[in-house]
Amino acid sequence: MADNVLVVHGGGPTAVINSSLYGVLKEAKRQPQVDKVYAAIGGSEGILKERFLDLLQYPEEKLKLLLKTPATAIGSSRYALEQEDYEAMVGIFQKYNIKYVLLNGGNGTMDTCGRIYEVCKDAGIRVVGIPKTIDNDIALTDHTPGFGSAARYIAATTAEIGADVKSMPIHVCIIEAMGRNAGWVTAASALARKKTGDAPHLIYLPERPFDEKEFLEDVKRLHEEMGGVVIVASEGLKNEKGEPIVPPIFKTERAVYYGDVSAYLAELVIKKLGIKARSEKPGISGRASIAWQSPVDRNEAILAGSVALKAAIEGKSGVMVGFIREETADGSYKMHTELLPIKEVMMHERVLPDYYITDRGNDVTSEFIEWCRPLIGPELQEFVDFQEEYVLWRE
Amino acid sequence: MADNVLVVHGGGPTAVINSSLYGVLKEAKRQPQVDKVYAAIGGSEGILKERFLDLLQYPEEKLKLLLKTPATAIGSSRYALEQEDYEAMVGIFQKYNIKYVLLNGGNGTMDTCGRIYEVCKDAGIRVVGIPKTIDNDIALTDHTPGFGSAARYIAATTAEIGADVKSMPIHVCIIEAMGRNAGWVTAASALARKKTGDAPHLIYLPERPFDEKEFLEDVKRLHEEMGGVVIVASEGLKNEKGEPIVPPIFKTERAVYYGDVSAYLAELVIKKLGIKARSEKPGISGRASIAWQSPVDRNEAILAGSVALKAAIEGKSGVMVGFIREETADGSYKMHTELLPIKEVMMHERVLPDYYITDRGNDVTSEFIEWCRPLIGPELQEFVDFQEEYVLWRE
Question: Does A290 touch chain B (CB under 8 A)?
């Protein structure tokens, strides 16, 4: 009897999580010992409820659509598993003759991956992690599939909003970016710039305590200089005490709900400076946009899926596929994959290092931009800037 | 001496306002008596400050980029003109030998257009309006350039967010759409649907008083049925008294500032129903997105620019280019342009008629969808829905 594969998605979707699923299917078709590739419908809960769907039953033309499908085509969950859940899984895997379990997700899912590995290691079932998170906060890997597309989305969106604000420079515009603890996506908005003076004019990251006084000083100065100011702020900005800058709007026993950082900062600008301000919060669009999917990200996501299955078949287990960037003579972008021990990955959340943030904490450094640029794919479209031409022409 | 053309942009940009500018330039190249096509840099203020830029100096390859440039490439303004400003304009037009003045904008700009026409009519200067607004609220025309792209953006964004919410159905997601007085863009989110149960699940328009009790009933019921609920709400929702549902956050002598409707409704759902809710407010992206520009909209915008210049050269003045939809035997989309007297256009703002809104006021009718569909361009991409397949497969 041939062996089966199980793919499980965990946590929030990205624009390329389905591309990794496609990568698994592509590899499975190359491997004669693989019979079925099951998807656990609805994430880890799908394992316990034995909601399995064999994906190889679909024709290639349908599977190819996965490369352009937002969200997760097989569902996901944030279900918190108990120890008894983990133990129950081994029997379920055996019942379906599942020999290779691939978990695609972020830090929470890699933790689950490590625990499933523990319960499976004596049963000959191999467990491999596929990294996925727009937040880019997984340790040891240079970056994670999903980040490049979220970065491309925020850069393009900031460029478009920047063009709009520049063409009628009457207000301060605050864009909220995803990433509550790590500022990678927020920082990537800097890729919107083509020349000095382009949006974003200020960038605020969760890695630095938010200083209201300095913020208002910076906004006031830039508004006087340019009229229109574009700011990108992380949804997770915190004050010096490490508390969210937005006061909680509601608390239940299970959770605390906060308002939007962008709306909070816009209100601050209106009230304290008397300057017209508005908030833009693309929110979930930032991880679901297929229009701004990065082709580099998509290809790496496919690779991660393929490499994960190949590793499991070759006998690896308790590892995650990581991306290692290579030094090249001409500075061009090159990377390879490595299998990282899941135990080490599980240890910490990766935030933006200090050398990627300016001293004043209101922008990123050129080192960050250099690191980030290849991940978002082809250069953003050249916008025609007749206004700029006009200035040159008159002087 | 040959005659010159002046193009002026007014009010907020759209994804295709630069396409109309391109249409003017295209037509100008065909007309031997046209020498220069000036742009008034920064809108109507640019006329008074004589900030004119000759656009025909640029090579065609650069001008073609206008078709894909967000915002307005020559600036815009919301500057309120005084009677003396209008009178000063005639001399300025004569100084630059401007014989054709084309104003591209929404209702406010068409008002300006009518007033400039009044002061110019005895001076042999012809004034023609090019309609432009994502709000689609200009009278007498079937629709306005700019709307089709904003409609495509909100439909695509709602479909992507809908896919995300469906793949992890744990919350209520409220998307805020632009259009403070007219619900055309909000309504267009219905184009995201491919089958029953698809997002958006509820649509709230500014044309109907917002009923909090019915809203909460509807959200509760849908959350129980589906887990994830996607709602699209206009930024301008009002209560029975005609007041904005969001209390003002700040008042100055000049203006009143309101918070975001989406955040307000999300807070309502959290507090009153205890259900996790989040707000998404793409805001300015909704009018600046080139990725979701509708090709139908772009072509009509080019046409509007060309027709406007042609009309002026043929001796027309005090008119706006309007779009008239034709009845066709096979129901296919066909329209032609007509020159509408600007005096009649100036008279009223066009809102969504009753027959486009359902009785309960929480959705649009199939008549609206039929009317809107051709404007957004090619059908939105088919998303793969394996979750749906799974349900079919198990039953």
Answer: yes
Of B65, B164, B291, the CB nearest to A382: B65
Q: Are residues A367 and A244 in the same domain?
A: yes
Residue A36 has a pLDDT of 97
* Token pair listed for A277: 């301000």
Q: How far apart are the CA of A281 and the nearest CA of chain B, in angstroms?
A: 5
Task: Identify whether the C-beta of residue A308 lies closer than 8 Å to the C-beta of residue A29.
Answer: no
Question: Is B372 near chain A, with CB under 8 Å?
Answer: no
Q: What per-residue confidence (pLDDT) applies to B1?
A: 62
Q: Specify the CATH number for the domain of residue A80.
A: 3.40.50.450
- Amino acid at position A195, single letter: K
Instruction: Answer yes or no: do B195 and B267 share one domain.
Output: yes
| Per-residue pLDDT, B2 | 82
Mean pLDDT of the B81-93 span: 96
Whether A135 is catalytic is yes
Residues B264, B188, single domain; the answer is yes
If you average pLDDT over residues B210-220, what whole number do you get? Answer: 98
Specify the higher pLDDT residue, B80 or B156: B156
Q: Which of B15, B144, B45, B56 is nearest to A383 (CA)?
A: B15
- Whether the per-residue pLDDT at B176 is higher than 60: the answer is yes
Structural domain containing residue A134? 3-146+291-345
Within-domain flag for B394: no
List C-alpha distances in Å: B155 to A181, A210, B186, B354: 31, 36, 9, 21
With bands split at pLDDT 50, 70 and 90, how would you rate the model's confidence at B390? low
Residues A213 and A320 in one domain: no
Query: Which residue spans within A225-334 are E strands per DSSP?
Result: 229-234, 248-251, 256-258, 277-280, 319-325
Does some domain include residue B102? yes
B163 and A CB contact within 8 Å: yes
- The 3-class secondary structure across B104-120, one letter per residue, is EECHHHHHHHHHHHHHH
B214: domain CATH number is: 3.40.50.460
How many domains, chain A? 2
Token pair 């004669």: residue: A32
Number of Cβ pairs closer than 8 Å across A and B? 224
- Dist. CA B221–CA B213, nearest whole Å: 12
Same domain, A161 and A44: no
d(CA A61, CA A22): 11
Q: Write out pLDDT tens, residues B185-195.
A: 999 999 999 98
The whole model's pTM is what? 0.96
Higher-confidence residue: B255 or B10?
B10
Alpha helices in B254-324 (DSSP H): 261-268, 285-288, 295-313
The rounded distance, in Å, linking the Cα atoms of A107 and A351 is 12
Residues A35, A163, single domain; the answer is no
